[in-house]
RagB/SusD family nutrient uptake outer membrane protein (Pontibacter saemangeumensis), 489 residues
Amino acid sequence: MLVAGLVSCEDELDQAPLSDASAANFYRNSADFEQAVNGIYAQLSPVPDRYYDLSETRSDNVYGSSSTGVRPWDPVNDFATTLENNELIAEAWNNDFNGIMRANTVLEKLNESVVPEEGLRNQFEGEARFLRALYYFDLVRWFGEVPLYATVVLPAEALTIPRSPVADVYALIMADLNTAIEKLPASYGASGKGRATSWAAKALLARVHLTRSGPSYGIEGPGLEANEYSQALTLLNDVITNGPYGWVSDYASIFGYGNENNPDIVFDIQFQSGGLGLGTTLPGYMGPGSYFNAIPGIPSPQSGVEMRELSDDLLNAYVPEDVRKGVTVQEGFTDVNGNVETRAFYRKFLDESSPGIDRFDWPINFPLIRYTDVLMMKAEAILQGAAGTQQEVDDIVNMVRARAGLEPVANVTLGMLLEERRLEFAGEGLRWHELVRFGQVIDKMNAWLPQEDELNRMPESIEAFHVIYPIPFTQLTVKEGLYEQNPGY
């Protein structure tokens, strides 16, 4: 395997196969470029499972130690220092870089002669840059320093490109998002649902500013202590004031199968219905096979997925009145043999009445940025020192709490905001990144580990190096000395 999968020929995620087409003879007209841009979006397909594996399972939301200890997520859950050989780590690296490769190819081939209509050409460029920024942002948060490919490179050239400082990777991310804000349309017609908009680019850039402003932990990780809370707030206020989004009063409906692309969705990953195998695997991946075997109408149930139980700490954080718990959590079940399972798992994206071809094919989109998130990021920016008032913060948090059926609170602190975000976004893959961004990951996890580690497989405490993951071993061995492993692994 070459560095970053730059010579990968895996095209199964393309929405329409290119057959024997190559970059040399394919990019001839607008239809070809639309198909190619769809191929960049297609690399988002594994993201929901990845966020469950590398963020939720890593965090204090999930205790993911399996009965045998040999599942791919076990060493992620257990903070093993041998993760460089883990298939989940390799998947994150390879698929993100494949998305970057596809974006770079579109950007290289795009010009006026092949896409003469300026508006469409701008859209394609904006989408490619938005998605490249998104993939690089994930890489920075998972691995810290990564090789920087701003153009298409040949495999031989890739072997000369070392990892770049995090600040340099962020420079490309922010430049791409600023260009995307300029080039992307504010909205699309019905046929363009799910495509990136200028509003999505602004919201993502705000999250980048917040992440850059987080603590560094003394490592080459996602936080640079950049103090860019004011920049984030400007973008967030623009999305809130001028964007086409709005408050959805019923929490469950945000994730309803018949209510996709509702006003709370700023950007999501689109999955198809119709039993074509183009749905998301996430609902079936988060739940155990024994649960689905007990439900009539679920096609071809299998028992290959073992439960990753939700932590007692998360379950106890929900008060009885909080309606979000019932939407988010499946608290036990009875299997086909009458055995009672008392452990809990995530069910937020599950509708048992709408399966596809099997329990790994669900026609529900996965949100990456919600309007509720935009509001709560505004509260975060204000609490971190951007212009604003305590009343604005309290009002935002109390909107969220009122929808959840909870009483209002006053004088919200960063700690209170972090806890409210935990309950609001549980199962959406944000928790690890937010613990890191708020500067709470070491303290929170070190308090949590001794309480939850029933099988005694975790370390007594984690250290700063655990904030990011190791570089996959396959990348380290491509060319000796090209990359150095992240400290601690």
User: Anything to note?
Assistant: The beta strands are 62-63, 146-147, 163-164, 265-269, 309-310, 329-334, 340-346, 366-370. The longest strand covers residues 340-346. The chain is about 45% helix and 5% strand.
